[in-house]
Write a structure and sequence with these properties.
Layout lengths: L3 E5 L4 H12 L3 E6 L12 E4 L5 H7 L6 E4 L7 H4 L5 H21 L4 E7 L29 H20 L2 E7 L2 E2 L12 H11 L5 E5 L5 E2 L2 E2 H12 L7 E3 L5 E2 H12 L4 E5 L13 H7 L7 H21 L1
Parallel strand pairs: 1-2, 1-4, 2-3, 4-5, 5-6, 6-11, 7-10, 8-13
Antiparallel strand pairs: 9-12
Helix pairs in contact: 1-7, 4-5, 6-8, 6-10, 8-10
Length: about 325
């Protein structure tokens, strides 16, 4: 009998890739989102367009005891969306409602296991002020001090899932994602994250020109390629470890260095102009000690390999848009 799986946020970047991987495994998959995937047709056996803030839709979506539920749906975006302060109320309200609704219907329908995608944005800002030595170990989460309302909502929802795990017996698994990127991710429009934004800027720039980077470019991050993210997610979901645990790369890089890497891959000669703009914490890197101990896993691919694939795809999108 096929394993039955529900993926919420299945129209998004990670969700659409996850659906494809689950289908390759032979699972029966239902996907749900406000929209279909932007860059490919839905691969799910059943794809529902709808708003998970609506409890009635959640009842319709969770109408059976799924073997696995992957709760990826959230109101989210990159620094240009999360750190301006203009979207705080929507981010907190929308994502919290989705999680409250989904947990209620999953318990009522005796769902066996649910994965929740939290974020490294829930880590305390005061541990991420030094770009060269950020502390993002799982046990550093408290005392809590996220740098954004997005991070506060993620922290609340982590605790919500753990509480339902204790009180209702639903097997929750929680991952703190660190900057997942790759082909078919949002690359324009204001919600894109740093790797896609930099790839787009380089792809659009004329040889000999310049690209703009927010901040002084010395802020650091790590970036995890989508295939690695899916591998870590499935390992965690099917393990006896509930988390929360980091799923990310520990190959830290400054944003200016990321831009130089993309420029090198492009073959263009471009300069970097640092300008003021939202940038989040000064430093963030995935601490992978715990996931190594618990799951025996770590990312295997270098940042460069993932960026080469992503730049190639975004360059195609830019060129296609220029023709349209």
């Amino acid at each position: 009998m096929k394993k039955s799986v529900l993926v919420t946020g299945a129209g998004g970047f990670i969700g659409s890739h996850l659906v494809k991987k689950l289908k390759q495994e032979g699972c029966w998959v239902r996907g749900v989102d406000l929209k279909s995937p932007l860059f490919s047709k839905p691969a799910a056996d059943d794809f529902i367009i709808g708003d998970l803030r609506d409890p009635q839709l959640c009842k319709k979506v969770v109408d059976q005891p799924f073997d696995e539920v992957f709760q990826l749906a959230a109101d989210m975006g990159g620094a240009g969306f999360v750190f301006t302060g203009e979207n705080d109320a929507d981010i907190m309200h929308n994502s919290a409602l989705i999680n409250l609704n989904m947990l209620e219907v999953c318990v009522k329908n005796k769902v066996k296991r649910i994965f929740y995608s939290s974020s490294a944005c829930m880590y305390p800002e005061h541990n991420q002020m030094d770009p060269d030595n950020p502390n993002c170990s799982e046990d550093s989460a408290y005392p809590a001090n996220p740098d954004s309302e997005y991070g506060w909502e993620k922290l609340f929802s982590e605790r919500l899932y753990l509480a339902f795990n204790r009180n209702y017996g639903i097997e929750a698994r929680i991952a703190r994602y660190h900057n997942v990127f790759g082909p078919e991710g949002t690359w324009c429009g204001g919600r894109e994250k740093a790797p896609a934004a930099v790839c787009r800027k380089v792809a659009e720039a004329k040889d000999g020109g310049e690209i703009e980077i927010w901040g002084d470019g010395l802020q650091t991050r790590s970036f995890l390629y989508i295939e690695e993210c899916l591998e870590g997610t499935l390992r965690l979901t099917r393990s006896d470890f509930k988390g929360p645990v980091n799923i990310g790369s520990d190959e830290m890089i400054a944003i200016n260095s990321l831009a130089k890497l993309v420029i090198e891959i492009s073959g263009k000669k471009l300069s970097i102009k640092n300008i003021s703009g939202p940038q989040g914490v000064r430093g963030r890197n995935s601490d992978n000690k715990l996931i190594g101990q618990k799951l025996g896993w770590k990312p295997s691919q270098s940042l460069r390999v993932g960026i080469e694939k992503t730049y190639s795809w975004i360059k195609e999108q830019v060129e296609k848009n220029a023709k349209d």
